[in-house]
Amino acid sequence: MTEKIGVLGTKSGQRTQRSGVERVVNAPLPTVYGEFRAIGYLDHDRGDEQVALVYGEIGKDDVLTRLHSECLTGDAFGSQHCECGDQLASALRAVVAEGSGIVVYLRGHEGRGIGLLGKLRAMALQAEGLDTVEANLALGLPVDARDYGVAAEILHDLGVASVRLMSNNPRKREALVQHGIQVAEQVPLLIPPCENNITYLRTKRERLDHHLPHLDAVAHLS
Question: What residues make up the catalytic site (predicted)?
């Protein structure tokens, strides 16, 4: 377990202040994809509740893993502005097909870390012609404020030393390595684009360095 405890002194004695990530619960979670275990964590530093969906018996090395940033509009509402919902579904199917694996669902990552309302405000600016990077900057918000330290702590708690990371984002790989999780392979998670998200995806490739080679085959989309 990766829980870290700090002790602060007070006039009335000693009190403990927790920091880091604490494992709170491990519950069975039957889904349309298969039978997962939902392992719930509390991030004492940020106050976020996190969950890792674990399928099968995971080992220490080369565990098929997805770090999925929370996206209410895509994951729950089926938004075509992004590919997040389809990526989440594909990742869950992939770990089931593999026989074991982990999907870490990272709350607090909405809109690349700017929050739901910030994301909606950015989407409104994108409807006026700005791209996703320009929209964030126009609002005085960071382009990407996500931190993956919590994800690494969760993987350490689960006994994972190295992963096969389902992601097109090189920043996720770099962050895990910096936090002591080796990435044996970066597995593409490519979703066919549609007219509503092609500009967004091209911006992610051209300005955020996401590896999206399949976009070359859809030049006909606006």
Answer: 144, 146
